[in-house]
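Margin note: ligand = zinc ion.
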Amino acid sequence: MNVLRVALDVPLATLFDYLPAPDALHAPEQPGDRVVVTFGRRERVGIVMERVTDSTIPPERLKPILRVLTDAPRLPADWLELMRFLSSYYQRPLGETVAGALPPRLRSVKALPKRKLRALSARDDAGESRFVPSNQPNPAQAGAVERIGAALGSFRPFLLHGVTGSGKTEVYLQLIARVLDRGHQALVMVPEIGLTPQLEARFRHAFPLENISILHSALEAGARTHAWLDAARGEAGIVLGTRLAALTPLPRLGLVVVDEEHDTSFKQQEGLRYSGRDAAIFRAKVAGCPVVLGTATPALETWHNCRMGRYERIDLPERAVPGATLPRVRLVDLSIDPADHGFARGTVEALRGRLARGEQSLVFINRRGYSPVLACESCGWAAGCERCTANLVLHSTDRRLRCHHCGWEETVPRACPTCGNPDLRPIGRGTQRVEETLAALFPEARIARIDRDSARRRGELEKALEGIRRGDADLLVGTQLLAKGHDFPGLTLVCVLGADNSLFSTDYRAAERLFATLAQVAGRSGRREQAGEVLVQTRFPKHPLFEALVRHDYPSFAEAQLSDRESAGFPPFVHEAALRAEAKQLEVSMDFLREVAASVTPTEAVRIYDPVPHVITRRAGYERAQLLVQSRSRPALQSLLTAWSERLFADSPRNVRWHLDVDPIEFD
Ligand code: ADP
Ligand code: ZN
Ligand code: ZN
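Resulting structure:
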């Protein structure tokens, strides 16, 4: 008997058995086929994962597959292997894992609209792609290309540790040219593609004849399906995308690049909570090709892997533009030069100097809105979100209070709802307030604010960035959104406000993130001939993190962090997972976690912590708690998680929502 085991998008940790379709046209079905089956009363799309000869279900109860969908190529064996790996590693049913990896249109039982046949590209004619380098590689870049290039054709992970502006992208482009010449595909992953249209432009400029697939979640469904199909059919030589690009079938994969590999947005925070970077490394291993992790500030896990000899490290220690140097970082000691409206005198003077010389400055504060708290000083009331354990953020442009955790918003009250005091005060500052202060300090300056509020609509951000590059603004105020990847030729000064906020966080990863953010934002300055400068306002100028930042010394920062983590028993020296629960009442969540924890016999190998409420306990009306488990042994951790998830998928209370997060990084 022929039985096909099919993955379906249902929250059950099992495959479903079907008989081959009676219609002999497509039979016999193979693993990787997309098929339509009846499940319950509905027709659903599934993926054939295996062909077996026997089923635990009696033959008379087995239903046949209705039809095979042939509008997209059969999913290849290495892709099915990736799905199995992700499903077991991240403890998510195979069916949901597979469904989440497919573009939405391929999950539908409707056949795809027929595509116009495309004319053969010039690449096919010439048999080789034309590469237009924009720069002659410098010796460091050429060395990197040689070393990685020599590894083409076998699995080898590299860390390309290059300071900001060291020309990492140029190294990727040179390598991709070699990969295309061998007839292979290159997968290039970036944290957020929408923020960097410049990057896409650089790729198109470098490979004018190549079919480049762009893949990210903000794409319109049709465009995403096309890009995916081009990649899956092997027609696209280059696939450039966000974390989800790691889940695309790539029949001729010859190189994987993960740019800004430390970026936390590579980790998906819902559904299948996978790391796009780790999935990319797995891809390279299965495909037998090198993987390049590029960054100025590696994730500590990556740095650790280098120290252990698992990854090979290549340094690009200098900026690539001749004459460009790394910016000078200065700490503005707020205990000597106290801030007035957020700005120390030294900072104001530095900004004034740049304005006088006609150079651009960037004021960085990682908090959007006007002020994070609106409070009554006479009774201590503060505007809070009813659905979350969080304060509402005051937004000045439309005079509204917004919750940054659940999206709730309301108008600003005229007076304190508790005591009637009409004089409510904004406490602390965000980008809007900083913009207001700058406008008062420098009335003649042209100010541009860039954050998620100013760039709500698509295309708006792009336009604003283009204007900044042209020199339409003297002062930029922005969040993280401005820190990543942009190249502003006229920018020579970066001022950082509020850096101390994450210096003494309870989250042991806060320092790593702060260092990366500061190095990134500092990297926006002085990318051309004029030397750049960075001012960081702080009350703790002696803090080792800042001392390392001033020296541009990531390695010593990383070594110090790693030795702290080793003695405290944190990752990467142990492996972690979190079981999280949310319910209408906190006690329900806590009891659920306690019960799950008690359901296994404790072993030496795995440490199960007590459940704790999350810092922002209530979000959108649900009270949240989590349970952390740690182990030095990955297999021991995985077997505990498997035991838990088998139990939970079989039977879990209806009043609790739960999920597992393997290698968790943050949780808001
Ligand atoms: P990174 O990705 O390391 O931040 P980029 O690849 O964006 O660096 O390069 C930074 C700048 O240096 C870009 O303007 C790029 O055109 C320029 N550049 C890169 N390589 C060279 C080179 N070999 N000679 C001159 N300029 C270069
Ligand atoms: Zn009051
Ligand atoms: Zn809220």
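The longest strand covers residues 42-52.
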